[in-house]
Amino acid sequence: MDLTCEHCEKSELMSGPVDTNYFPLTMRFVFSGRAAEVRRPGYPRPRRAPERERLFAPRFPSMLSAEPGRAVRRIEAASVLGGGIALAGSWVVVAVGHGVPEWEVAIFERVNELPDVLWPVVWGPMQIGSLLGSVVVVAGTFAATRKHRLTLATLAASQAAWWGAKAVKSIVGRGRPSALLVDVNLRAKASGVGFVSGHAAVAFALAAVLAPSLPRAGRAPAFALASFVAVARLYSGSHLPLDAVGGAGVGVLSGTLSRWALGLGGEGLPVRERD
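Structure (tokenized):
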């Protein structure tokens, strides 16, 4: 009887009965063209992962780690930090300053005074940041991906951004451009207070929650579209620049934290096999 050791540095031919006490825990041999497994006496069979662990194994190793204590990716931590800085920084400037800073007025006027002929082109994409527009994006996400958790994260992010912006508005109470400046080109109906922009918040929330699941080539356009929505709010005369910056901060926080909560990045619930 000839046995060939597959784990040795070179194959060795052995004759006679095999004493398994001389072999490691698990060795595989080829016997008559068929693989056989030999174990030392007293060693248990290697543990097989429970069915639950195999069921909840992550499908996207580039996005999730199989280790239960996986670390948050740097880009995710940077998103949360950047969103917090954008929100807090703009909030401080608005709260401490009296009126509208000159640099903010200059930026607003440059955008707001663009030709009216652009309004029909700007109006459509701007609706992505509306409450109804976000629902359309959520429905489109499910139709395109059939991913339940990604769809739920998109819904949670957009709703958190919209209502979070409402909460900040009630606290800060900064007026709209038409209440603070003169000669404002008001192209869209807007009421109430301005800081922060709800449209910018929703647009950036959708970008933050969907971009990591998009192909690499589609991530920058997602944030470019969110930035377009924020600038469109200045062009419409509904918001000042700091309103848009604060809204972007709320959106990035909402989108990233929604992914974490639904297990799509960082710490959170495991991703189901069918999700």
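Residues 74 and 266 are 10 Å apart (CA to CA). Residues 3-39 form one domain.
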